[in-house]
Amino acid sequence: MVGKRTLLLLLVLAFLFTPLLAAIVPVVDMSLLGGLSYKPSTETVHQGMGMDLKISLPSPNSGNVRGEVVLKASYPDTSPTLNDIIHKAYLRARFPSFRLTAGKTRLSWGDGMLFNAGDVLYGSSSTSVSLTQAELRDKTDWMAALNYPLGFFSFFEAVLIPSTTTRVEDVGFGLRFYTNVGETKVEAGYATTDAGERKHKPYVSLQGNIGADWYLSSSVALDHAFSTDASSFLISGGLFHSFYFSGDRTLALRLEFLSRPLGSWAFKGQEDATCTLLLYPELVYTPTSSLSLSLRTILSPLDLSMNTTVGAVWSVFEGFSLVGSLSAPFGQSSDLFNWEGDQMIALGIGASWIY
Amino acid sequence: MSKPVVKLLLTLSLLCIIPSFLFALTGEEVIQKMDEMATFETSVSTGSIKTTDRFGTKISTFKAWARGTSDSLIEFTSTAERGQKILRTQSSLYLFYPDAEELIRLQGAALRQSVLGSDLSYEDMTEEKNTLDSYTVVLEGSETVNGYDCHVLTLTAKKRTVAYPVQKIWVDKQTYLVWKAEYSTAQKRLLKVMKVLSTVEVAGRTLPSETKIEDKMKRDSATWMTLDSLEVNVPLAANLFSLENLTW
Fold first, then answer.
1. Which fold would CATH assign to domain A95-354?
2. Which chain A residues contact residue B101 at CB under 8 A?
3. Can you tell me whether residue A16 is helix, strand or coil?
4. pLDDT at residue A284 greater than cutoff 90
């Protein structure tokens, strides 16, 4: 019922924007997924159908001010708030020497598809992520950001993150410097946020090519006394390379890692927030330009558990794709991935359409 | 035949032959002229990429800006990929995905990735027009393509970073337009064939307005690239080919 209310609210909000639609072209991104899941802990099978709906209302692409509203809802969703539904709502103004962004949007700091120690604003270290999504990390937040170009390929960025408690001392902010040194991209920055306890998070991120593309990021979260615990020092990195075969077939390989090097390296059960080492191998085979088959795994080497997803995307018509996936955890009861608790084996088949 | 007549014929023959040697272009000169004719100080264009396969047709539209031989910026304007941008400069290629607000720098093999599932790669879309920096040239002879007398040239890659190790191209002797090109592997295995279907006159030069690219490794697949508008030598903002503009 709540899910239906969400959809209704989304439609009402879209209707309210109707007068604007004469000037702009809305984009609707709809994903329907039928699923079958088996929870080994309770030996129960569930079936259901879900829908993700995203409506994007971008401003006309001209002038020195632009913006976008993106409304997002999922069915069934048990507790959506207005903040959940407003995925993006921002304006951006270009002044002669700097650019200002204000509202709810995303800033991508650091490098990494799944693991990114440089993502000090939102965090990209959790294993609670659906490997069936095209974008594995898409969290947005309210902010005001200033981008100051330093030449054509370098810039400085400052961001202010408003307090969620209305207390001034809970305001967060961050700074980033982005440049190229020779063939290597160099990015360094700092962010401080207060989610219960104020943390100071400096980071550095590098990216280059040695035949394969490589990237490396590191960050640390320090408390008010500038001390840290073992799980707050993160290093992530990755290698990416594509192989091309006759018939325009492509095989793309990616291997990422995330490490908390000050953690325990003992071979024992791991937890998501403190896991010492995680690997993310990804293999995407594209036999034709419209079909891609993927194998994505999050692997915890210290307890030899993993979560694997096999997926297929077939772009049949313009904007229309058929998708399918099968995911399953493998591990023992105390491992990071296991067949206890809420973890389940899931089969999903559906379609997505952008128009 | 009397001696004076023979002398006269020899002299006339020499007079006819010598200029053709004196003024014949080398392969490198043909390529230089070809690059010159395809390069403007600046340009702004709009167009579309149409891809067909056995399930139908997909069309993506774009707007593109270029400056000189190596700077280009392409912004996709069609619904599914609106706002995605490709920036090519002399040393780097960057992609911007607006949904994730993500800036990606492409290097190495990633440059050969297909653009939006078409038969064009990022390298094809934003190729530098300094052909002689990347290829050695052999002038093979002359052939007629679409009724136009063309130089036939074979280009062999000097470095491994180019998209196609071997190219055979047919260059119009009058306009220096490439009417046809065959792209092959180093082992001479044919990968793609490009043909110009129609042309447009801009600033006294003949340029392709509709091009068909066929991937010879795929059945029932072809890509048409069409220019709907093209303005040349127009003033462009100084920061157009920058990260600031790419992420705008």
1. Porin (2.40.160)
2. 105-108
3. helix
4. yes
